[in-house]
Write a structure and sequence with these properties.
single chain, 74 residues, 4 strands
Length: 74
Amino acid sequence: MLVANTYQETPGGNWSAWSTGLGNSAPGGIALGLAATQRHDGTIRLWATGPDDLSLSSIAQASAGGEWDKWETG
């Protein structure tokens, strides 16, 4: 999945440049739908549906504020 993101750098401030950092080694193409949740340990998990067959893939942070694991499909 290709997930593009931007964030506000400071409250009421400028926005970052767009990034597609979660697109590496991801199955499928551009995500059609996206959902996110913060887990009890502070990590974030994303779910995305693929553009062709609506397959469900997910990716999670390895640690809160840390690197992301690889995309999983299934």
